[in-house]
From TrEMBL, chain A:
This is ABC transporter permease YtrF. InterPro entries: ABC3_permease_C (IPR003838), MacB_PCD (IPR025857), Macrolide_Exporter_MacB (IPR050250). It comes from Caproicibacter fermentans. It is found in: Cell membrane. The chain crosses the membrane at residues 21-45, 304-330, 351-375, 405-427.
UniProtKB/TrEMBL annotation, chain B:
This is ABC transporter ATP-binding protein YtrE. The gene is ytrE. It comes from Caproicibacter fermentans. InterPro entries: AAA+_ATPase, ABC_transporter-like_ATP-bd, ABC_transporter-like_CS, MacB-like_ATP-bd, P-loop_NTPase. It holds the Pfam family ABC_tran. One of its GO terms (cellular component) is membrane protein complex. Belongs to the ABC transporter superfamily. The keyword Heme does not apply. PANTHER family: CELL DIVISION ATP-BINDING PROTEIN FTSE (PTHR42798:SF6), LIPOPROTEIN-RELEASING SYSTEM ATP-BINDING PROTEIN LOLD (PTHR42798). One of its GO terms (molecular function) is ATP binding.
Length: 444, 239
């Protein structure tokens, strides 16, 4: 028997029992919809998680924290830095040397800024993706007194004679414009001095600063370029040493102890390895990637639960197909017998039943995909409405689609539903195959 | 040459501990082109004999040789393929497929043989015209009378030009006049195409159409005689 004749006979059988076929197909439609919609919610969640992650930080960056004993992390000294420089796949690495606001003061006219200073390897800032709001980021040939202001640091300048109201108010006015700070970071001249003890009589020494530019605000960056100054790490160390000497501070920490070391890897894939090796070296680290990994594992569990719920309804649909086919065999016992007597080989009979069951699965899958797209679009528009009407975007994040159907899922569910149909058809088909021609044509 | 010959066929049914002997040692042969009738009362084993000859029932003992080939030990699949090519069937209750039109029903044995659709439809239409149903081509079984349905059945049996055609009580469900028409048609077709036809019936009137009448009783052959009246009508097959 020709394959196309077999298909034609199967289809015509389905057509002759169209009410039952449609009902059975509907079961598969519901099952397929359940799986696709459930999974699409999972994909939506994943997408918004990834978007959120991207806005929160660079996935290729690993931050290593300095000791302090309590953190259980080793002391970040030059030896540690050397070890970390040796890690494979490192694109850029910078230690961060932190000076707290008590160390130095930056002055401009009568205004002063007790500056938080981050000493960093200035030439790596570009690689780490810092952006300049004005001016330029340093290349490899920077001077010792070159500095970059954090985006908000203009507001930190105040008049020390007016203790309380010397601070600038940082709330925007009616038109949404920020008030101008007392100093102009781009045009004014700034000097830096190391703070002396209050009772000191020594003369303050002012050093002229060379402002390269102002960093753009970026909450995903570490250190955060906001109320602070970025300068070369060696100069920062020098200033700290000077401060300690002038103020008779006996530092317990060694001179080259960094608050953190920031490492940029050449790819996301290199991050887990690097994190592992840093842990092996005895340091604690933080990376968006490991965060993401943990969240992704959680998401996968959620997605599996959602998909499982969908799968249950498809299982019920599969039982529906089997039931329909078994019923159909009871009705067609005589027909099957006649076909056998007329010389239809059993393999053909089996194949016909499998084609019927597979077709039910395929049709259900195809219709299910169409309807799933509808449901998905509906969910997304509802979510968009909820987001714009000021309600919370919820766990799904803002604005993005809460339901995403990837193209591969379309093909996968079509194949899957057809397979489910075929598998549901195996038992009935084998049964049809075993029907005795004689008993079949004897029954009235 | 013998178209079909069976040797010492015995068929015993076991129902629980009881044995029912449906056929006890029957031997017979039917020559190529012969129209033969197996006559017997109800329960005499006619249908069983026919089913054994067609491979629908396995004999308990004995052998079946069709066209020189011993087919006794054929598997189910071998039998199916063999029937496709060599055997046609006419049933008492027509046994047309209810969802198919007359043409599709007649073309079915050809479809099983893998004949392309246009070709088999053409042959089926020709056959239906031969049984004078040219105006009922697209009717379904439920839209036809019993006599018409049986004519579709006859067309279906002849369409693949098998070597052998079996008919089990072909007029059993018809009134005597329609029955006669059907018998006339069937015998005429068999003569025209030179087919070997084996008819099973309990009705001596029907048996008169055959050239040879084999009577069985309680599973045993009691007589085997030629019927000169019918044999006289025999024409040369045109094949
Ligand atoms: N499947 C079976 N199981 C047990 N006994 C059977 C079976 N088929 C037939 N028989 C028995 O075999 C005998 C012959 O049956 P068969 O059907 O061949 O008779 P028949 O001559 O065709 O009768 P009828 O003219 O009524 O159709 C009967 O006694 C019947 O009871
Ligand atoms: Mg019978």
């Amino acid at each position: 028997m020709k394959f196309r004749d077999m298909i034609a006979m199967s289809l015509s059988n389905l057509f002759h029992r169209r009410v039952r076929t449609v009902l059975t197909v509907m079961g598969v439609v519901i099952g397929t919809c359940a799986i696709i919609v459930m999974l699409s919610l999972g994909f939506g969640m994943r997408q918004s998680m990834e978007d959120m992650m991207k806005s929160m930080g660079d996935l290729t960056v690993v931050t290593v924290y300095g000791g302090g004993g309590s953190r259980g992390s080793g002391n970040l000294d030059d030896k540690a830095l050397k070890n970390m420089q040796k890690l494979p796949n490192v694109t850029a690495i910078t230690p961060v040397y932190y000076l707290d606001p008590s160390c130095v003061t930056v002055s401009c006219r009568k205004y002063q800024f007790s500056a938080m200073v981050y000493g960093v390897a200035m030439d790596t800032l570009k690689t780490f993706g810092f952006q300049a709001e004005s001016g330029n980021l340093p290349g490899s040939d920077f001077k010792k007194t070159d500095i970059l202001f954090g985006s908000e640091s203009g507001y930190d300048f105040m008049d020390p004679k007016r203790q309380n109201d010397g601070m600038m108010d940082r709330t925007p006015d009616k038109n949404g414009n920020m008030p101008k700070p007392f100093v102009d970071l781009e045009k004014d001249k700034f000097t830096l001095s190391v703070n002396l003890p209050e009772d000191s009589t020594a003369r303050k020494k002012d050093v002229k600063l060379n402002v390269l530019g102002v960093l753009a605000q970026d909450y995903s960056k570490n250190p955060n370029p906001s109320d602070c100054i970025f300068m070369d790490i060696d100069y920062a160390k020098e200033l700290k040493a000077k401060y300690n000497k002038l103020n008779n501070v006996k530092s317990s920490e060694s001179q080259d102890s960094y608050s953190q070391i920031v490492i940029k890897m050449d790819s996301i894939e290199a991050v887990p390895d690097a994190v592992q090796q840093i842990t092996d070296l005895g340091y604690q680290s933080y990376s968006m990637e490991s965060q993401r990994d943990a969240m992704e594992k959680q998401l996968r569990t959620i997605q599996m639960i959602l998909g499982g719920l969908g799968a249950i309804s498809l299982l019920v649909a599969a039982l529906g197909i089997t039931n329909t086919m078994v019923m159909s065999i009871y009705e067609r016992t005589r027909e099957i017998g006649i076909m056998k007597v007329l010389g239809c080989i059993v393999w053909n009979i089996r194949a016909m039943f499998l084609v019927e069951a597979g077709t039910i699965g395929f049709l259900g899958g195809a219709a299910g995909i169409g309807i799933s797209y509808g449901i998905s679009a509906l969910l997304n528009s509802l979510a968009a409405k909820a987001a714009t009407s000021g309600q919370e975007g919820g766990i799904f994040g803002m604005g993005g689609n809460i339901s995403i159907i990837p193209l591969w899922l379309v093909f996968a569910s079509l194949v899957f539903s057809t397979m489910v149909g075929l598998i549901s058809g195996i038992l009935p088909a084998n049964r049809a195959m075993k029907i005795s021609a004689l008993t079949a044509i004897k029954q009235e | 040459m013998d178209m079909i010959s069976i040797r010492d066929i015995r068929k015993v049914y076991h129902i629980g501990t009881e044995k029912v002997v449906a056929l006890g040692r029957i031997s017979l042969s039917v020559a190529q082109g012969e129209i033969c009738c197996i006559l017997g009362t109800s329960g005499s084993g006619k249908s069983t004999l026919l089913n054994v000859m067609a491979g629908l029932e396995r004999p308990s003992r004995g052998s079946v040789i069709i066209g020189g080939t011993d087919v006794t030990k054929y598997s189910e699949k071998q039998w199916a393929l063999f029937r496709q090519k060599n055997i046609g069937f006419i049933f008492q209750s027509y046994n047309l497929l209810p969802t198919m039109t007359a043409v599709e029903n007649v073309a079915l044995p050809l479809a099983f043989r893998g004949v392309a659709k246009e070709l088999r439809t053409g042959k089926a239409v020709k056959m239906l015209r031969a049984v004078r149903l040219g105006d009922r081509l697209l009717h379904r079984p439920t839209q036809m009378s019993g006599g018409q349905q049986q004519r579709v059945g006859i067309a279906r049996a002849f369409v693949a030009r098998p070597k052998l055609i079996f008919a089990d009580e072909p007029t059993g469900n018809l009134d005597s006049k329609t029955g006669q028409e059907v018998m006339d048609l069937m015998v005429a077709m068999a003569r025209k195409y030179g087919e070997t036809l084996i008819i099973v019936t309990h009705d001596p009137e029907i048996a008169k159409y055959a050239e040879r009448i084999i009577t069985i009783h309680d599973g045993c052959k009691v007589s085997d005689e030629s019927n000169p009246a019918a044999a006289g009508k025999k024409e040369e097959p045109e094949s």
